[in-house]
# Entry
Amino acid sequence: MIGLRDFSIKNKLVLMQVLTCVLVLGLCFAAFVITDVKGYKDRKVASTISFAQVIGSNSISAIQFLDNDAAQKTLIDLQEVETDVVNASIMDSKGSVFASYTRPDHPAYKFAPPFRDQHRFDDDYLYVYKNFLDQQNQVVGTVCLQVELTQLQAIKKQKFEIAAVLLFVGITLAFLLAYLNQRYISEPILNLVNVMHEIRENGDYSRHVEVAGRDEIAVLSSEFNNLMDEVARRDQKKDEFIGIASHELKTPLTSVKLYLEALAKMKHEPLVHNFIHKSKEGVKKLHNLILDLLDVSKIESGQLQLNHNDLSIDKLVDECIEDAQMNTNNHTILREGGPSNTIIRGDKDRLEQVLINLISNAAKYSPAGTNIAVETLATDEEITVTVKDNGIGIADSEHKKIFGRFYRAKDSNSVISGFGLGLYICSQIIKRHKGKIGVDSEEGKGSTFYFTLPLTSPVTENQVVMAISNNKV
Amino acid sequence: MRLRKFIFLFLTSILVQNNYASDSYRIQVSQPQGQEYNLKAAFLYRFLDYVEWTNNSSWNSNSEDPLRIAILGDSALYGPLSEISRDKRAGTRAIRIRQISSVTEIGASQVVFVSRNYKYGIDAVLSRMIDRPALIVSEQKGDVEKGSHINFLISDNKLKFEVNLKTASRSGIKIGSQLLQHAAVIKK
# Structure
């Protein structure tokens, strides 16, 4: 069953308007038909009563002198005038039939007492009883008439036909008007929904909805804009906080790190040496996390500066593999395919950061003893670097999300630590190199991360800024 | 089959007649004299509504004067007519009934009813009453030809009446058209 709630607002509006129209028109027509039928009945009663009066006054002497034939003739003569009369009887003062007439095409009807002034309707007929008086105001007899209501059926039929036609026209017009009208309501709502959807997809809180008019939807839109302003403000505050906090943490941590390194170079008892080594490991992790936070903060505030130079992609890849292999004992990192012999323009440190991040992620999410393969693939226009593992894989639905900020895989446990910033930073670095980053993966079947860099010398934001400022000068 | 249908139709027509024709009146007429005179009294009383006495200005000008009816000769009409006159009036006038045995007693009566028991018959009345403003009502066959204004007769077991307009108008009696339309015969 389809509930009213499942209807769209558009359909609800149209339905509501059409229903209202049907209701109002229906009531109007009911009143119209009832008044008409009542009017017809009233007129019929009045005319029949006066007709009965004429018969009565013409029959006084007939009853007085027991002249049935004369009374009969009166009935027949007058019936010719009022052809709707199907049965007519004149009763004497004792209630016996004095004269009667039945239209030839109609069955006879026996009028029942009491014979006093009255009228009543049944489905097809009007019955009128009318007493008539003599000169002394004594009741001489009663004229009883049974009148066919042929016109009533015709009137009803005609009214219902008119009602049906007008109802149809009314509903059609109501539907058209409602259909045109609803756009003023449902369109802004749909627009609002679209903007919300976009904001959710892009995380661009500065996006505003157009506010038109002063109705409730305009209020809603404007409130939504205010809400987004508030969200954007808080987001910015959070970024500022992360920037400040990470910066403040970095300075003392750097000195702690340096002292520990110095300590590590000294001679100690094995236990102390072990403690120092553990501390160094911990501080290194902490340092990396803070560096990530700092990077994010720089990215968000647009202060991530790239230092572009010509560099060999083969050399970059080999150095990264070497570095990464030093940090992992459980996995073997292999270079697959031949060298690409390609020189690109980019920030060496940042690109190394991306590649190392991808390799260490691969190591983090794949079982010990497996291989991690790095491959470069060059075309005329671009070079693609892939990092392939045999790990747990990533579900399709997550593919887009993993490059977002603070994203961590759903089933990540405490063993796999981190802020979930690595891939976000990678994607931002690649984006600033005019490249693309992505993943091909299936749950349980390993993942292949890749990034692509254009071979034409990339134009950086810094160069653009410099170009603009040069023009100004 | 045809015979059966015929019988059925015949019986039905009798039933219908019984229902719709005025049996009651026939029965009344065919009853002994009392019933007949009840009806005659009622008719006579009704006549008063439709008759005007145009030649009697002194009586007409005084609407309190009673309307006098004389019954000439022994008649069973007296009883029922007296009954009617007791509680009914002719317009504003009271009704007085007298039983008389001679034309000399007619006096200023507005209506004279000549009983079939009056031995001298209608002629004696007419010769006496010539051009006098009284309605003469009789009940013998042929009386209306002789000059009686209204004469009762029984035909088809029903009480009817005939009217002689000529002699009536000569006597200054105007008989209303509503009464005339029920007359069996109108003599002009």
